[in-house]
Design goal:
With 231 residues, the protein is of the alpha+beta class. It contains 4 helices and 16 strands. A hairpin with a 2-residue loop joins strand 8 (69-78) and strand 9.
């Protein structure tokens, strides 16, 4: 994980390049575009090199980036659209038709306080972010939409990215102990739904314990914690 400072040019190239927090494209001489860092931190990229971002362990506020999954709370209704708090500097705009199969006669009726799992469709420093509740390629829900029931816990931005990594141990470990549904937003919010309240509490406690801001326990430490809980 190389350390980068603001203003550095990053050799990020891919057919389907997606830039996350801390990176932006700029047009230079001869109209050539380059990827430049806007934050100090650790440069990260996905295994296939398509997604790049800067991880800043001290960052507390989420900076929206296109295609990233987020969990938000509806805070205002504006005609056929909604304002959604996603933990960023500005609320995100969610169109009432930005759901699978939605039409003017058939669309979700979200209320103030409703939770949604969405992906960022527009992120620009001079505009409010926009989100939508379907996959951009298939136009199917693919897990996005209103989150009903369950419980939302807050974790660090770094922890949320760990939980989205299919190779990270925590959610598979918990899923082997009891059934659970989970949705993870890169904005540091995790929605959990279990059959029993004590199972939900267990998931929340394990996320807190594994988070680098709450102890940073590894798989052995979490297994020890699970053995002390009444499951």
């Amino acid at each position: 994980m190389p350390t980068v400072l603001p203003g550095e040019i990053i050799p990020a190239k891919h057919v389907n390049l997606k830039l996350g927090p801390g990176l932006q494209q700029e047009i230079g001489g001869d109209n050539l575009t380059s990827v430049v860092t806007t934050l100090a931190g650790y440069l990260q990229r996905s295994a296939n090199g398509a997604r790049w971002w800067v991880e800043n362990s001290s960052a507390k506020r989420y900076v929206p980036a296109p295609q990233e999954p987020v969990i938000g709370t509806v805070v205002l209704r504006l005609g056929e659209s909604y304002k959604v708090d996603i933990g960023a500097g500005q609320s995100a705009l969610l169109d009432g038709l930005a759901f699978e199969g939605a039409s003017r006669r058939n669309r979700p009726n979200l209320k103030i306080g409703s939770l949604v799992y969405a992906r960022v469709s527009l992120a620009h420093k001079d505009m409010d972010p926009e989100i939508e509740c379907f996959d951009a390629q298939t136009r199917k829900a693919e897990g996005f939409g209103e989150l009903k029931g369950g419980f939302v816990t807050i974790c660090s931005l770094r922890m949320s990215r760990n939980l989205l990594d299919p190779n990270y141990f925590l959610l598979p470990l918990l899923g082997s102990r009891f059934p659970l549904d989970a949705a993870v937003g890169v904005n540091g919010r995790v929605w959990v739904s279990c059959k029993e309240v004590k199972q939900t509490v267990t998931v929340v406690r394990c996320i807190e314990a594994a988070d680098s801001e709450g102890g940073g326990k590894g798989i052995d430490g979490i297994k020890q914690l699970l053995n002390t809980l009444d499951l």
